[in-house]
Design brief:
The complex is a heterodimer.
Chain A lengths: L5 H21 L3 H29 L6 H31 L13
Helix pairs in contact in A: 1-2, 2-3
Chain B lengths: L9 H16 L6 H25 L6 E12 L2 E10 H24 L6 H20 L3 H19 L6 H32 L4 H10 L5 H17 L8 H4 L5 H10 L4 H8 L1 H5 L2 H22 L5 H22 L2 H28 L17 H15 L5 H15 L8 H27 L7 H6 L5 H16 L13 H10 L13 H28 L12 H7 L4 H47 L6 H25 L1
Antiparallel strand pairs in B: 1-2
Helix pairs in contact in B: 1-2, 1-4, 2-3, 2-4, 3-4, 3-10, 3-15, 3-20, 4-5, 5-6, 5-10, 6-8, 8-11, 8-13, 10-15, 11-14, 11-15, 13-14, 13-18, 14-15, 14-17, 14-18, 15-16, 15-17, 15-20, 15-21, 16-18, 16-20, 17-18, 17-22, 18-22
Chain lengths: 108, 645
């Protein structure tokens, strides 16, 4: 199977990122907002991997750095999920809802 | 300290110790304790003074200088703080601590049951400490420390019953008027330092006598010191604070505003005697300020109805006598009058306090009378003091007052500055003094009682703790004068004692030595003046029962006298009015310009802040949208810039 060109991967990444962004903006449930954020993160990861592969085929010294960054992103995302879900659980316990629009107590 | 006299430097420390103990722990001490502690420490300072006095006897030109510590050393200027124990300062210390101890003792009775008695005794001890520093200081700087210290104590004790606003106001008034005089003192110090390059009193005196006689600089220094002295000693035109100072407890009036603090101005001029001996102009200013004050204050005493205010004006008047004495160059005479005056005036005030105590705070002379029969000790001692201040022969006031009159008459120093005028004014004042003091005594202690029955029933002689000091002071009011008998015919101890200390052998002030019959005539004139004053008082108050004054009592002359010759009203109109006017202007400026400007800045920031706060609407998805928009814009900008390069 012939490898898809980098442009296709980047286009897919952009599409995933846009979907994620729209999800963040439109969904009211904090869990779904979270999910959308994960989607955006992974869209970025996909772009990184695609560019990394292109550089590798060009034979430059920085060939694998893109993939390395992906691991860092995954690790940070995992940590963020742990903390974020913890906060979410706490909020849910407090008000039996995870609607982000209701979280406005600190507004002036 | 091998020299016994040098131990006197501990006196301020002892008094300060008493002030600290009573000030810090007085609240937890039971009632008579603070008074006893303060009295014992005051007595200890008196013992130190006595030791120093005895130790100095028989020494030729006795001076003991004690260097305490170096203070200012800058370039060629060297100032050490030290104390000078000599004939003059020891005599002043004897007066201050002697009369002071008696008044402390008296206060135990007078302040009995007052909630603030510990505070009272703490302040009294603090006053003794400050006054000792003032008197013992060997430099103008240290003297100024004491000078301000007694001013603070005076303010705090005048306003002792500060819950009444007029008392607190009187305290502030005394302090502010004194501050005006202090400006003169400070300027005189600056000029002394600039002219002589020293602030040590002894060195300044030495430098003064080598300056050209009568130079303008010397005159200016002298007049500036006079301003300071006039503030502290309640001389024209700064005398207005002393009558109001009577708001304080009566023993305070006796100690601070009669016997000791108010004589600080006289002491200052006597201490700088060589300087004044070199400048007849400044001396004449001192003498004429004193004479004018003596006359005007005696006049103001005529129509007062408050027992203490009569004595206050009398004090101002007697201080005027002392100023004339230092003005004409008779420095020892001035201190002699300080000495005798301390006894009879303290006695008058304490007798007054005894009466006020017996009448439950009544101070109006119109509601007294006939008390002599009910308060035998107070009445008898008050009579002695009255006769002494009136100048009745053979009592102490007679000798010192007569010495002042005689020296004014024979002064060569003030030749050309109206010395006979000075003499005339003082002779008239002597008659006036005898008159108003007779009125004071007769209205309180003799004649018919004008008290209401309730008060009259409670009248009692004061306890022994109060009458013993009265008796001791009465003894001195009789005997103190014999230390300074007229020089021309009798031995005069006090002149011999003080002469070297005041002029310090640096210079002399000449006096005429008129024929013996003139000397005797001067004495006769003093006796006649006192006699006329007393006789007039007797006729008006005892024979006619004050009826002569029914027409005069509400006339303009009486009103002017009652208003203290109108100084307060004039100051209110001119000085206070101008100050209030300009303060009002400044306050408008402050409110409308400064305050509004700053408040405007603040409210502008608040408005901007509220606008910015609208952005935080609590709608999380809106934040996300704003973030996305921002990032998009950023990316576009970067992309566009990237294309351009």
């Amino acid at each position: 199977m012939a490898a898809a060109p980098t442009e296709a991967w980047v286009a897919l990444s952009a599409a995933l990122f846009a979907i994620g962004a729209i999800g963040v903006l439109t969904r009211r449930s904090a869990i779904l907002v979270f999910l959308s954020v994960e989607l955006m993160l992974n869209a970025a990861n996909l772009a990184l991997v695609a560019f990394s592969r292109q550089w590798a085929s060009a034979g430059t010294a920085v060939a694998m750095s893109g993939q390395t960054v992906v691991f860092i992103v995954l690790a940070v995302a995992a940590a963020e999920v742990a903390v974020g879900l913890g906060i979410l659980v706490a909020i849910f316990r407090d008000r039996v809802s995870t609607d982000v629009d209701n979280l406005s107590e600190v507004r002036l | 300290m091998s020299d016994l006299a040098a131990w006197l430097v501990l006196a301020p420390a002892l008094a300060l110790l008493g002030a600290l103990i009573n000030g810090l722990f007085g609240r937890s001490l039971k009632e008579p304790l603070p008074g006893i502690l303060a009295t014992v420490l005051a007595g200890a300072t008196f013992v130190l003074s006595l030791i120093a006095f005895v130790a100095l006897q028989g020494r030729d030109h006795a001076v003991v200088d004690v260097m305490l510590w170096p203070y200012l050393q800058a370039g060629g200027f060297d100032l050490s703080l030290g104390m000078r124990i000599d004939a003059l300062s020891v005599l002043m210390m004897l007066i201050i601590t002697g009369v002071g101890s008696l008044i402390h003792l008296y206060s135990i009775g007078y302040m009995h049951g007052d909630a603030g008695h510990a505070r009272y005794f703490s302040l009294m001890n603090l006053f003794l400490a400050a006054m000792s520093v003032l008197v013992l200081a060997d430099s103008f700087v240290l003297m100024f420390v004491g000078w301000e210290g007694v001013g603070v104590c005076s303010m705090l004790l005048i306003g002792f019953w500060y819950q009444t606003k007029t008392n607190a106001d009187a305290g502030r008034k005394a302090f502010i008027v004194n501050r005006i005089g202090d400006v003169g003192f400070l300027l005189a110090m600056f000029l002394t330092a600039a002219t002589f390059g020293t602030l040590s009193i002894a060195e300044a005196n030495q430098a003064a006598v080598t300056s050209p006689f009568g130079s303008a600089t010397l005159a200016l220094i002298g007049i500036l010191f006079l301003v300071g002295a006039a503030g502290k000693s309640a001389q024209l035109p700064l005398q207005v604070w002393l009558p109001d100072a009577m708001a304080g407890p009566t023993p305070v009036s006796a100690l601070i505003h009669a016997a000791t603090m108010v004589t600080a101005g006289v002491y200052l001029i006597a201490r700088t005697a060589p300087l004044y001996a070199m400048t007849p102009l400044a001396s004449a200013a001192v003498a004429w300020v004193g004479a004018a004050t003596a006359l005007i204050a005696a006049y103001a005493a005529f129509a007062q109805t408050d027992v203490k205010k009569i004595l206050a004006y009398s004090t101002i008047s007697q201080l005027g006598y002392m100023f004339v004495a230092v003005g004409v160059g008779a420095y020892w005479v001035a201190i002699f009058h300080v000495f005798t005056h301390a006894f009879f005036k303290a006695l008058l005030f304490l007798a007054c306090g005894s009466v006020i105590h017996a009448l439950d705070g009544e101070q109006d002379i119109r509601r007294m009378g006939g008390l002599g029969a009910r308060m035998k000790v107070t009445g008898a001692t008050a009579l002695i003091a009255t006769l002494a201040i009136a100048g009745v022969p053979l009592l102490s006031g007679f000798f010192s007052k007569d010495a002042i009159l005689a020296h004014a008459f024979t002064s060569v120093h003030l030749d050309g500055y109206g010395r006979y005028g000075l003499y005339g004014v003082l002779l008239l004042t002597a008659a006036m003094t005898a008159f108003y003091m007779f009125r004071w005594y007769y209205r309180i202690f003799a004649g018919e009682s004008r008290m209401d029955a309730k008060t009259a029933a409670k009248v009692h002689e004061s306890p022994a703790v109060m009458t013993v000091p009265l008796a001791v002071l009465a003894l001195f009011a009789v005997l103190a004068g014999y230390l300074g008998l007229p020089e021309f015919a009798f031995p005069n101890w006090i002149a011999q004692w003080l002469q070297p200390a005041t002029l310090g052998g640096l210079t002399t002030v000449p006096f005429e030595h008129p024929a013996l019959w003139i000397e005797w005539s001067l004495i006769l004139a003093s006796v006649v003046a006192a006699g006329v004053g007393l006789a007039l008082g007797w006729w008006i108050y005892a024979v006619r029962n004050g009826a002569v004054f029914t027409g005069l009592a509400e006339g303009p002359l009486a009103r002017l006298s009652r208003a203290g010759a109108g100084f307060d009203a004039a100051y209110r109109a001119i000085v206070v009015g101008a100050a209030e006017g300009s303060a009002g202007g400044v306050s408008v400026l402050d409110r409308d310009l400064v305050d509004r400007g700053l408040l405007g800045l603040g409210s502008t920031a608040t408005i901007l802040g509220r606008l910015a706060a609208r952005l935080q609407n609590g709608f999380v998805r809106a934040y996300a949208l704003a973030m996305l928009a921002g990032v998009t814009v950023l990316v576009l900008v970067v992309a566009w810039l990237g294309v351009r390069t």
